[in-house]
User: Fold Tubulin-like protein CetZ from Haloferax larsenii.
Amino acid sequence: MKLAMIGFGQAGGKIVDKFVEYDRQRNSDIVRAAVAVNSAKADLLGLENIPKDQRVLIGQSRVKGHGVGADNELGAEIAEEDIDEVQGAIDSIPVHEVDAFLVVSGLGGGTGSGGAPVLAKHLKRIYTEPVYGLGILPGSDEGGIYTLNAARSFQTFVREVDNLLVFDNDAWRKTGESVQGGYDEINQEIVNRFGVLFGAGEVKDGQEVAESVVDSSEIINTLAGGGVSTVGYASEGVEPRENKSSGLLSRLTGGDEPDDNLDTAHTTNRITSLVRKAALGRLTLPCEIEGAERALLVLAGPPEHLNRKGIERGRKWIEEQTGSMEVRGGDYPIPGAGKVASVILLSGVTNVPRIKELQQVAIEAQDNIEEIRQESDSNLENLINDDEDELESLF
Ligand SMILES: Nc1nc2c(ncn2[C@@H]2O[C@H](COP(=O)(O)OP(=O)(O)OP(=O)(O)O)[C@@H](O)[C@H]2O)c(=O)[nH]1
Assistant:
């Protein structure tokens, strides 16, 4: 699937930056265009892979390049005021070559939390391509304002996008380690999971790969209908090998020549076990998989380690577990890969404890809204008055 990715705020920018690197390293073709939008100049300067002319600084007249200090109402205001500047960068994207937009943002801060839903709404008004969000929930130790921002931003973002993919920092924090210290690993996890999912069927022109059965329309159909999505992942190292069952035909028939029987059974069992591990292990947003409206199973790896029987069994098992009648499945052959990975996209999930918790926070926050506003105002003052912090110009 070819995406135009827009990272809003610091987390969004860093994650899109990593996606560009992932795409380059694997010679895949997921990121057709990458844009970073921020109100903090330093965050834009810190990016490594997004082209400089695709980094947009907004709100300069209001916050002087210092960020909005977790004030997401201000984040939303400056996004609206400067939407033309963002559109200027998007204008250079060959939109006819992209399957969808992906707006990536941390929901706990100010710039991305407030701005990402504004941008999603704008994109939906202008383009016919689907607009998806990738929202990052804050760790529960980050403080009241972050949780409240996330609660509010989540509600708006999910309404403005065609589907909101969610990653919960809180569930991924390592014991004894603050989320702050663990972002590199967390971001790599995000990019690996969504990279395999969006990469299914996408290879650069001229690269020789057998036809994949997963294509972008299957991802789009799984995400259609809206709501919240989560992604499961599991992988196992394998030895790539040259053998006669590596052709497309034997993959499609399950490679059932007599002397392949043992191998086939082993491959099938590995696939079904990876499907279970992906669904029952840690999801990007932990939730009950029962009740998910739609799902997509992608098995990625060297073609000789994939077979239709395993994928079909895995798909059926997901049908039973979710109770959904709309479970798609397919393979993503990567010749020479050192592992087989199972990725499950669960779309339209409803039984999500973290979201219920956030909704509760939003309700309770109405009672101490003044206190929270003060926390955010003083954050902002500190940032803007910080005159020592002279930054070199961006371009
Ligand atoms: N996974 C991940 N989460 C991050 C990262 N950086 C920040 N976050 C999360 O995203 C939330 C928002 O932080 P930022 O992206 O820094 O905020 P911002 O949108 O730039 O807004 P302001 O800094 O308030 O102007 C935080 O509360 C964290 O939970 C990152 O690199 N990876």
Q: What stands out?
A: Residues 3 and 32 are 6 Å apart (CA to CA). The chain has a mean pLDDT of 88.
